[in-house]
Amino acid sequence: MAKMDAPPRWDRKMQQRLARGEAAALGEAYDRFASLVHSLAHRVLGDEKAADAVTREVFAHIWEHPETYDPKQGPLRTWIAAVTHRVAVQRLRDREERRRDEGPDGAEDLLGGEEDLMGGEEDLESKVRRASVAARADYIVHSMPVPLRRALELAYFQRRDYRQTATDLGVTEDEARRRLRLGLQLLSTAHDAGAPPGYGGAA
């Protein structure tokens, strides 16, 4: 299984290889990051086919515009997550706007149309916000150090208490509590911003 966190040197070399048009480099990037891209897209859109489409679009962008990634600005993984979030949120907006425009009868009510439109905007922004927080949480979980992620998985997905978690991980109870506390602190930042961490070069 590929390492979750690519070293900076790998990031720089990958960007250079993509810029030279090496198809093998795109294949390596896909093997390493496709599951992340698909997971983030699915978190935003909640649809397998839509997530597949976003995954294709993201890697097409990587192939066609490798120069938009600047290794000095952060890891390749972070940039790809930001690109994925941008593409997925735009698809979500487009989909929700189409649904709103079509309406139950394919047209807005003449008297209530303006109010419905304003309510629709708020509903769309709420959906985008919730999807963004979920995507950020998913990104944080997959990006955090393996010991922290494993502790969270045991405690919250397998319903282990901290004593059982310590036993399963082969660590002291104090260390298990520390890992859980740090993991939860990282997860709590999912509400601090709408998108997975990124930077201006994502566009």
Automatic annotation (TrEMBL):
It holds the Pfam family Sigma70_r2. The keyword Transcription regulation applies. Keywords: Sigma factor, Transcription, Transcription regulation. Residues 93-117 are annotated as: Disordered. Gene3D superfamilies: 1.10.1740.10, Winged helix-like DNA-binding domain superfamily/Winged helix DNA-binding domain (1.10.10.10). GO terms for biological process: DNA-templated transcription initiation. The keyword Transcription applies. Residues 93-103 have a biased composition (Basic and acidic residues). The lineage of its organism: Bacteria, Bacillati, Actinomycetota, Actinomycetes, Kitasatosporales. Residues 30-96 form the RNA polymerase sigma-70 region domain. This is RNA polymerase subunit sigma-70. InterPro entries: RNA_pol_sigma-70-like (IPR039425), RNA_pol_sigma-70_dom (IPR014284), RNA_pol_sigma70_r2 (IPR007627), RNA_pol_sigma_r2 (IPR013325), RNA_pol_sigma_r3/r4-like (IPR013324), WH-like_DNA-bd_sf (IPR036388). It comes from the Bacteria. Coiled coil: none annotated.
